Structure formats: C-alpha cells, structure tokens
Amino acid sequence: MKKLMLNLAFCLLAVSAWAQESLKGKILDASSGEPLIGASVWAETQGRGSVTDENGNFSITKLKAGEIQLRVSYVGFESLKQSLTLPYSGDLILKLQPTELLTEEFIVSATRASATTPTTFQTIDKAELSKRNLGQDIPILLNFTPSVVTHSDAGAGIGYTGLRIRGSDQSRINVTVNGIPMNDAESHGVFWVNMPDFASSVDNLQIQRGVGTSTNGAATFGASLNFQTDTRQDDPYAEISNSVGSFNSWRHTVKAGTGLLNNRFAVDARLSKITSDGYVDRAFSDLKSFFVSAGYYGENHVLKLNVFSGKEQTYQSWWGLPESKLEDDRTWNYYTYDNETDNYQQDHYQLIYTGKIGSNWKTNAALHYTYGRGYYEQYREDDDFASYGLPDVVIGEEIISSTDIIRRRWLDNDFFGGIASINYISDNGKWDVILGGGANRYDGDHFGEIIWARIAGATQIRDQYYFNNAVKDDRNIYLKGTYELSPGLNLFGDLQVRNIDYTFYGVNDDQRIVDGQQSYTFFNPKFGFSYEQSSGEVWYASYAVANREPKRSDFTDNPITEIPKPERLNNIEAGVRAQKGRFSYNANFYYMDYKDQLILTGQINDVGAYIRENVADSYRAGIELSGAIQVAKAWVLGGNVTFSQNKIKNFTEYIDDYSESEFQQISNTYENTDIAFSPNTIASATIEYKPIDHLSINWMSKYVGKQYLDNTSNDARSLDSFFTNDFRISYQVQPRFFKSLEVNLLVNNIFNEMYEPNGYTFSYYIPGDSGRELVTENYYYPMAGTNFMLGLNLKF
C-alpha cells in the first residue's frame, strides 16, 4: 500500500509538472518599434505575471495549459488585452499604442534640466528610489548619490534627518514638489520629518547640483531637489507595504488607485504610519501621513488635485552627544523630561493644470496652499522670570527671581500662491523656450506659552510671553530657452528676476522688539552650451548667478540697523555625460564663488545670541565622477567620487572670554580656512549581483572625509572621516492572486562603524594658571552601529 501511494504521488506530481506551461514574449512601442522596459504583463485568470527587462522581454512560468487572458500595461500607453491558448508556439510580440491622453511630464518640465541643458544633474526614477524605501527619510534614501552627506539626530534615519550636497546644507538647497516651492520661507530649510514616507508617493526626482536652472521658491545656493509625485496608472491597483527593523522601527503603508475611469478620471491614495524608538535614548518618532490625488485626463488637458499631509511627534535629541561620552555612552540624551517633544503638522493642497495648445505650445499652472502649525515643549530648570517678561515673585520677605518652567514655542503659518509657465517648441525643433514664474506669500506667527511653573507668579496658563508675526512676499519671473545652432550644438540662456518683500513685527523670544521691513530685487542670469557627439557623449559648460536674502534669524538676531548683506553665488559647471549600452558615466568640474556668504563667527548680539556675519570671499571647487557598468549579465558595478576644496579666504573668529571680571570677546583672524562641514572627499560604490531572475544582492559602500565643525580648520574641532558598508537583498515573485510579492532586507553599517556625520562646537576662555585657559566643547550626533530593516511589499 505504501508503494502504491508513493507511486501515485509521483504520478500526480508528474501530471502536475506536465500541465505547467511557460510563456515568453516581447513588448514594443507600436509607434517607434522600441522595446518598453518595465511594462507589466499579467495572466489575469491564473494570477501570475512578469515585468519586461531592458530588451522588452518577459517570461511567465508555472501557467496552466488552456486559454488565458493576457493583460499588458505601461505608463503613457494604452493597455492591451490578448487571449492566448497554452501551450503557445512561435514568437509572441505585442505592441502598445501611445495613449492619446496628455501625459503629466510637463508639470515639472519648466523647473527641470533636460538632456541638452548645460548643468550637472541626476534623475532618479521610482524603481530606483523604492529599492531603499523601507521607512527611512528621503535624505537617507539619497545617501549614495554624488556629493551627498546625510545625518540623523536620532541616529537611525527616522525623525529629524538632513543632507548636505557639496557641503551646502538644506537651507541652501531648493526643493519643489510638482514645481511648487517647499522650503520654509523664513529659515529656507526643508524639514523632512514633516513629510513622512513621502518617497512612497514620488514618481521621480531630479537633483541639480550647483545653481542649476531657474525654479520657484528659495534661491538654489548649492543644489536643488525637484520631485514629481505619482502619475496616472491606467489599471486599478492596491499595495500593502510593511517594514520592521532595529530600535523597534515599524512602517505600515497602504496604497490604492482606481485606474482610469471612463477613460478620463483617476483617484489614487496612500496612508502611512512610521514609528521608531531611535538609536539615541528616548529619541522616538511617531509619524503619520496621507496622500490623495484626483485627476481629469483629456487629450489636451490635465487637471489634478493633490492633498497630502504629515503629522509628527519626536522626542528631542537636538542637544547632541558631548565628546566625553563618545567612547562609552553613544546613546546618551541630555533631555530627560518625559514630554520634551516636537509636535508639528503640515497640510498641503495643490491644484495643478497642464495643457497642450496646438502642436507648438504647452502650458502649466498651479495654485497651492500649505498650513503648518505646531510646537516644541521644553522643561526649563531655574529659569529667570525676567526671561519671560515677568516680575519677580515676592512671598513674605523673600524675593524669588527664578523657577522651574515648562514652556511651548509655537509656529502657526500659512503659505499660498501660484506658479505658471508656458512652453514653445518650434516646428523644426530648434527653439525650445519657457516663460514662467510664480508669486507666493508666507504669513507666520511665532509665539510662546508657559504651561506650567513651579512658582507661577503673575501668569496664567497659556499666557503668551512673546509674539511676533512675519509676512513675506516672494515673486519671480524667468525666461529660458535652448536653441540648436547646428546638429548636436545647443545654446542655453536663462534669465530670472526675483523680488522679495519681508515685513516683521512684535517681540522675539529673548524679549527684544523686532519690528522691521526689508525688500530685495535680484537678477539671476545663466548661460551655457551643450554639444552632443554622434558617439553619444554630451559635453556641456555653463555660468550661472544666484542671489539669496538673509534668513529670519539674521533679521531678528541682528540689530535692525545692522542687517547682513544678501549673498551672491557665481557658479561655473563643465563636464561630459554619456550612456553607451551597458556603460554610463558623468565627469564634471565645478567652481562656486561666493560673495558675502553668511556664516557663524562666534560674534554675539546685545543679548548674547550668536549671529551670522558676511565673509567677503569664499569658494567651493571640485571634480565629480560617477558611472555604472554591466560587466556581465548578472553583475553591475557603479559608483561616484567627489574631490573638492572649500575655502574662506579671510575669516575672523570671536571667542567668549570669562577670564576677566568683565565679559568680553577675543578675536582671531585666519586665512584660507576650510568651510565647515565640507569634506574634501566623498565617495560611494555599489555592487549588484543577480544570480537568478527576481533576486538582487547589493553591496553599498560610502566614504566621507574629515569635516570641520567650524571655519577655523582646527583639528580639535572636527569630525573624523568614516567608511560604512550596507548590504541589501531583494527577492520578487509573482505568486497566484498577487501581481507581485517582494521581500527586502537592508542591513546598514554591517561592520559596525562608529561614526558621526554631524555636530557643533563652541569655545570660551576661563581663568587659568597663566591668566586664561581656552575650553572647547564639541558635540556630536552619532549614527547607529549595525542595524537592519526588513520589508514585505504586496501588490494586487
């Protein structure tokens, strides 16, 4: 009986194996005959599918014999359904027709560089971005792009994170979403913590290094990031993504879309939640977000409404780690009060139109509104009543001038406006001209509340101890175009005028009156050329100018009569880029010459707050090299390296002196010093190995050279160089009833490197044996050792 059952089982297995079929084919563009890469091919009745490779080929295995319904879809093309009978013999070639509906690419084209634009840029598509997207913030996802250094206050890449490009921090990096400015109007920064899991709603992004092309919003003073959110999908879909990792990190994301309804309408939505305890003690993050998009898609017009929001609560780890604790207590956190938290919500509304007028004209316009509000809460031990504008408390004969206080500092702001552009392309294709611009207003309240005091005195709960308001109008208009002078040779010009009116009034948090008004008008020209050789190389060179107004703190911290001058950047870019079969590369030189760059010098204002001052001459100069090569069918090697010098020609440092009975500041003058946080070498490398279909194994390395914490080139005030290695393995299958199932394992810092990519420093003199003694205190933001994230992604 056992032998009979065993033989029967083998027979059934053999019959099952005989009944399984495979299907191979190719998907082409019907209009050009070119293969379509990444097209989705789905056997609807059997729940199995595939995606086309770089040659347009696909293969589906484990299909049952008989009739099947094959559905093929690709963005920008009409979906195709085909009935087939298996087994199928012969070459299966399916051709997709380009859709008659207008695509969404023009939404961002006005602010982007094209293949012929003579500037340095990189475009990252959704597939590449999603490889690392397991819940960490966008800066961490961009860690391996050229000239980028990333950091995280909590040490795990979730919560308050940031990046620098060519040494320029986020206040000097212009960010737009669908062409709409995202930088805070006052600090010029972008706070990624307010946009949790935003990468899950990004279709593609472009990084322009240097001044780049004219865009909306804050001046590009080091780089720009231009995001395009998810574009239309013609077929209904649903997606569930879950991740778990070190430090009790979790990410839950649900996405769904209707596909194209009645060949005209589509609705897409995403809901996300990310939590983490953080590497640093108590540095937890609790992040929530959603994204909803509804669109009308016609042959000549697209109208789209995007609504997205992020809400965050993070425990503060802003203080950093003192140098004395680097070796034995790297997770130490200065804050211990249980609600020492940052709480903020930001809601975005975008109404976007793009249209085609005849065969030569395209236009784009958008209205936007952002509402932000929130506070951070702090416990303050033994604070003076005078710091809050309060009188001393008298109890009997005792005069009490200080007490323990819990305070909240609030932001409540509105940002709204409109952008527009119109694009003309001549019949012969020689002229490509864009006229565009925007007008935006920021209206923000800053105020503080005392919510508890051990000795209350003359104050009530929710009393505001300071309040000030600022209104900033930012307008710009630009005209840019490319002219093909001869085959392969293109001339580029870009002229922008930007006007800013900034009005502020009220009482600052240090009890000073900060009433004032400033206006600026900037002219930002850009010129260049590109030459495309028949062999595929594109050579380019450009000269660009950017001007930038001071930040809010430069107005409020400096005496109103001593407002710093605006900054100016003259940028030269020159390089070559090419895509040749299995090999791609980019090599470029840059020179960024700053006039009146604003930096911290140690100088203080009349109430002891540190202020930024102009330095007359400084520069960044470097060479960036990047490339990738497919050395074999299963192996791809890639990498990039930046070698640079970043110098201030003359710099004066101010140091607080407490060695005498009367406080003073001591000044020291330096020549040709390094700009803070600007390493001379940044490099990364990736190795990808695909031993079998659907399995990808990646090794990723990153090197960052020594960085100085201030502008004195003092080795005692520096961050050590570091070299990290990450490991990622991805496996994707098409099981029955799913379009795809993908498992991702990411191991960060696999060799447990102890490193700190960010920090700060300050020095002061105290009495000593020889008269006075210099004390320097360095603080660091350590990154986690070996840690992991494991993700499961299901698509329906």
Automatic annotation (TrEMBL):
Residues passing through the membrane, by range: none
GO cellular component: a single term: cell outer membrane
Boundaries of every TonB-dependent receptor-like beta-barrel domain copy: 329-750
UniProt similarity note: Belongs to the TonB-dependent receptor family.
Keywords assigned: Cell outer membrane, Ion transport, Iron, Iron transport, Membrane, Signal, TonB box, Transmembrane, Transmembrane beta strand, Transport
Signal sequence coordinates: 1-19
GO molecular function annotation: siderophore uptake transmembrane transporter activity
Species this chain originates from: Algoriphagus halophilus
Main location: membrane
Subcellular location: Cell outer membrane
Name this polypeptide is given: Iron complex outermembrane recepter protein
Keyword Kinase: no
Gene3D superfamilies, sorted: Carboxypeptidase-like, regulatory domain, TonB-dependent receptor, beta-barrel domain, TonB-dependent receptor, plug domain
SUPFAM superfamilies: Carboxypeptidase regulatory domain-like, Porins
PROSITE patterns for this protein: TONB_DEPENDENT_REC_3
A Pfam cross-reference name: CarbopepD_reg_2
PANTHER family in the record: FERRICHROME IRON RECEPTOR-RELATED, FERRICHROME OUTER MEMBRANE TRANSPORTER_PHAGE RECEPTOR
Keyword Signal: yes
TonB-dependent receptor plug domain span: 116-222
Membrane topology term: Multi-pass membrane protein
